[in-house]
Every structure is written in structure tokens, then in C-alpha cells.
Amino acid sequence: MTVTISRLYDNHNDAQQAVRRLEAAGVPHSDISIVANNSDSWFNTDKKVDRDGDGVDDRAEGAGTGAGIGAGVGGTAGLLAGLGLLAIPGLGPVVAAGWLAATAVGAAAGAATGGIVGALTQAGVSEEEAHSYAEGVRRGGTLVSARVADADQSRFDAILNESAINLRDRSAAWQKAGWKSFDPASKPYGAEEIRKERQQYGGALR
């Protein structure tokens, strides 16, 4: 039996390290996913090295449609080699790779709860947590999810817990400020709003 475990990170560097640790621990690339806010343009495709030498970052092809998700995954490259740009309702521009991102893009067309929430709940995440994870990405965070064997969950939980935020405490802080649930129709956070959010919670990029 497999379970889905997820964690939210205040910066993409910590999230990428979590992905690498999961891979090193034996979790297949196909069972890991990462979705990171890119409103501040930290993922600049102009600086990436393309795979075929034509000067075009193939990973960003299909941005906004999800067509490029997972394009670079396979072999020994690792999940992060497949990072690509796309848009998910309510989140705005994101950098993503893996199964959750692909599911979210597909769910966006018909899921009443929105692409990312629908994808998370479909994977077994509670609706309450799914809304909090989605809101976390909207506010500048990075979500890492993995499908792992039930018997191994505690070991992989420990790996993901390194540098992850306390989702319950963060959600409680948002609720005190008036937040209720993730709204896919809401306006995505801009770069300045994300900067203030990170400053408030101490999640400045490293």
C-alpha cells in the first residue's frame, strides 16, 4: 500500500534538497513531485542549459499548458532535470515537475476545487491540508510530494521534515488574518507580496 506525503518549504532551495534526499533514499523519480511559486522569477530559463544545444530551454516548452512537465525526467538525471514552467489556477506562474503537477493541470479543467487541491485530495491528502498546501504555494512556497510505501512512511517523513514549515501553525496564522481556504479564482501573489510574506515568516531565499 502506498501513501502520499507532502511538505511545504519557504524557499525552493530547501525543497530541492528534500527532493535530492528522497531520490538518494531510493524513491523513484516518478513518485516525487515539486511545485514552486515563480512569481519572483527565480527560475530563469535564460540561465538554464538546454539539452540539445540549440539555445532553447526545452523544459519550458508548453508553459501554461503543462505540456513540458516531466520532459527531462528519466535515467539518472533526477526529477529536478525535468523542471518546467506552467500556470495553475490561483497560483500563477509555477516551476514544477512530476506526477502531482501533471495531475493538477489535468484536474484544473474540471475539478470544482481547483487543479492543485483536486490533485492533492485525489492523492489522499485531506481537503484541509490540500487547501493549506495550495495557499502556501500561492504565497511563495514550494510543495514537495512523494508516493511511498506505507511501511516506509516514517523514514521518508523524517527526510521531508528537514527545513519544512509547520503547516498547522502557518495555516493558523493565515486564519487569524482572515484566510479561510484556497480560492483558485483568487489573484496570484506578485513578487512584492511574496517578498513581504517571506519577510514576515523568515523564509527569505538562500
From TrEMBL:
It comes from the Bacteria. It comes from Bradyrhizobium japonicum. Residues 43-67, 182-206 are annotated as: Disordered. Residues 45-61, 190-199 have a biased composition (Basic and acidic residues). InterPro entries: Low_temp-induced_all0457. This is General stress protein 17M-like domain-containing protein.
